[in-house]
Amino acid sequence: MARISASVYTSHVPAIGAAVDQGKTGEPYWQKVFAGYEFSKAWMREHTPDVIFLVYNDHATAFSLELIPTFAIGCAAQFQPADEGWGPRPVPVVEGHPELAAHIAQSVIQDDFDLTIVNKMDVDHGLTVPLSLMFGQPEAWPCPVIPFAVNVVQYPVPSGRRCFNLGRALRKAVESYDAPLNVQIWGTGGMSHQLQGPRAGLINRKFDHAFLDRLIADPAGLSQVPHIDYVREAGSEGIELVMWLIARGAMSDSPPKVAHRFYHVPASNTAVGHLILENQ
Ligand code: DHB
Ligand code: FE
Question: What are the two backbone dihedrals, phi and then psi, of residue 138, each rounded to the nearest 5 degrees?
Fold first, then answer.
């Protein structure tokens, strides 16, 4: 049977993607951000999974305001990097895993979560920047990726509780797939940031560190935090953090091994947080 071996959590700032693509990662500003991912790239080489289930949010790229799925699972064989205004990022095409994606859709929908099945979709920085941070600049991404898009852009957004419970349903789905696949689940976005309005530039280190502590040690308790607390404390885009609870809910109920933890302010307008948790 397939199993979830580890979960990875990281912010997804678009300027990080531009720094990689333009060869600026060694500049003093960026060096401090990328230093936190040196361990992660080495860890990924040792722990390359068979498939990554990548939870992220689309930023009105694949889905315009005309159609906004709360949870969308990418079932296609390939996903093209999106054009977000400066042309598509020069990164490899993302290869999917249609068989596992279809199995997960079947299992999770029968478990009463309403997923939108997506057979054609471009992927934006929400998905490609985490891949760049963890893999650098390979010719091809080292394994297939199932994109899982969550609406955290247009209200109403799903609660942390629903995200955490969805993670549990994803775990059950993966563990009922009849092939010995090593699957990682990634939760991306966050940490505190607000991109518009009078509070633009908001960063809340105290909230972010407490979130990381609780994500590790008390995810069920953390999942009860209402969405308005994220917005008040972590800024309007801080709500992206509910996606981390999907990945955490998919992990085993016993305490994980914290393989890596990193936090840095700022990258562009955002507090960068990063965790690697291994199932024991
Ligand atoms: C920034 C962060 C985001 O999460 C995003 O989607 C766009 C921009 C930023 O910090 O600039
Ligand atoms: Fe974002």
Answer: -75, 165
Give the model confidence (pLDDT) of 226-261 as tens digits.
Answer: 999 999 999 999 999 999 999 999 999 999 999 999
Question: Using CA atoms, how far apart are residues 20 and 212, in angstroms rounded to an integer?
Answer: 26
CA gap 112, 268 in Å, rounded: 38
Between CA 190 and CA 239 the distance in angstroms is: 7
Instruction: Provide DSSP, 146-191.
Output: EEEEE--SSSSPPPHHHHHHHHHHHHHHHHTSSS--EEEEEEE--S
Asked if 89 and 125 touch (Cβ cutoff 8 Å), the reply is yes
Contact status, residue 200 vs residue 268, Cβ threshold 8 Å: no
Which CATH architecture is the domain 3-275 placed in?
3-Layer(aba) Sandwich (3.40)
Query: End-to-end CA distance of the chain, in Å?
Result: 17
pTM > 0.85: yes or no: yes
What rounded mean pLDDT belongs to the chain? 97
Strand runs labelled E in 44-107 = 51-56, 71-74, 78-79, 94-95
Whether the bond into 180 is cis, omega within 30 of 0: no
Distance separating alpha carbons of residues 45 and 37, to the nearest angstrom:
12
- Does any ligand 1 atom lie closer than 6 A to the CB of residue 193? yes
pLDDT tens, position by position, 175-197 = 999 999 999 999 999 999 999 99
Task: List the catalytic residues.
Answer: 125, 193
- Output the residue whose Cα is nearest ligand 1's atom 5: 13
Give the integer Cα–Cα distance in Å for 39 and 36.
7
For the chain, domain boundaries: 3-275
Determine the distance separating the centroid of ligand 2 and the alpha carbon of 190, expressed in angstroms: 7
CA dist., res. 265 & res. 98, Å (int):
37
The structure tokens 């920085």 sit at 125
Residue 41 in tokens? 């790239």
